[in-house]
């Protein structure tokens, strides 16, 4: 049951092995797939995977260091060691994967056990590791004609070269939450004009703690998510949040109107519908996890900081605000930065400084001295932390802001969110259209991952902000550029 290698190195002398299974595919893994996701070894279900010797050498070359890539390379090596050393099967028959990973991983792992020579075009350098792996794929494709053989790589150019040679090549899709990010949960649903006609026949309503609740039944209720926002603007405007859902019955709760100045948050009022929804999540102590998506200028950071300051300094819900972000430069890196952890992170926190300037000018009556004293107080309650030192920490009674979260991998996102201790709120901000981390896409970003996984949980909420409020210049630039 294995792609056993023949003794001869000539492809023409090899006959297809008829005893091989015809249904499972044979996937040849590039090293970048394993360094991106070590658990990819167990993600191919009933199909077999093949690891060339060059892939093992690249794993060995990248195992040193404290980077995410180095950690993943070491974890992959540990997985391989466990699989190979705990099995007593003939190495040419492959190693079963099911006992070491998911129950769905019923395929086998094959390792390259002898030299493989495959004739590649002269223009492809034989010394290149990528071309050697393509040579292995070509050899297996020509040898085992009764089964599909495909290269799996995160390297786009490598996949293009393989396809140019007539070989099957695929991206690693298992880490993608969605193929089409247009289908990503927005947290908001517009109700049809006839909503009340179809859902209000047996409606119950009551008031509690200043809010009005509606218990409705109808076909749309089955698709609602807990903490999702619904609205109806034709005729009499209606804005509400889904609080309960049971089959085709749901309970809707009216919202606090943060567009009105009397409900301002640290001097900030919502300028549009989505910002009002976002503030209802940010100011709700029962919501422990909030994700805000939106392009530049939609107010993600400003709203979050205003809500954090209000609940930290005035309401005393949280003891301090902790802000962190991924340090991925847009242009060329400028080298090492001097100072302490907080001083090193300061250049990355320009957005924090800009928004603090806005928030500090909201109190007009305070005067110049009063605003300076307030700014000093604010700075003392905001801590800037680096992602590099998050492992093992526990944040208790904190307001944790993760900025530029679209550049985090799902694994890094899990590491950060699991730092939350009792009475801590975590807010993730980002724009999945601006991803700077290699091998991450809109579908595989950690931000997309948590939005999809947390939807419908009683203590989480999500809003996709649509309209820019920075300036007419920024709005027009975002639209036409």
Brief descriptors of the model:
481 residues; globular; Rossmann fold; single chain; 18% strand; 18 strands; 6-stranded mixed beta sheet; Elongation Factor Tu (Ef-tu), domain 3; alpha/beta
Spatially, the strands of the biggest sheet line up as 3-4-2-1-5-6
Low-confidence stretches: 4-21, 329-334
What separation lies between the terminal Cα atoms? 55 Å
What's the CATH architecture name of the largest domain? 3-Layer(aba) Sandwich
Q: How much helical structure, as a percent, in the residues?
A: 25-40%
Count of helical stretches: 14
The CATH topology annotation of the largest domain reads as: Rossmann fold
Q: Report the sheet-strand fraction.
A: 15-25%
Largest sheet: 6 strands, mixed
What is the alpha-carbon Rg in Å? 27 Å
- Can you say what the CATH homologous superfamily of the largest domain is? P-loop containing nucleotide triphosphate hydrolases
Can you identify the CATH class of the largest domain? Alpha Beta
Write the layout of secondary structure elements.
Elements: E1 26-29, H1 31-36, E2 48-51, H2 53-61, H3 68-85, E3 95-96, E4 108-111, H4 129-143, E5 149-152, H5 156-164, E6 168-170, E7 188-190, H6 195-199, E8 204-208, E9 211-217, E10 229-232, E11 238-246, E12 249-254, H7 273-282, E13 289-293, H8 300-314, E14 320-325, H9 341-345, H10 350-360, H11 367-381, E15 382-384, E16 398-403, H12 410-417, E17 425-430, H13 446-454, E18 460-464, H14 472-480
Parallel strand pairs: 1-2, 1-5, 2-4, 5-6, 7-10, 13-17, 13-18, 14-15, 14-16, 16-17
Antiparallel strand pairs: 3-4, 8-9, 9-12, 10-11, 11-12
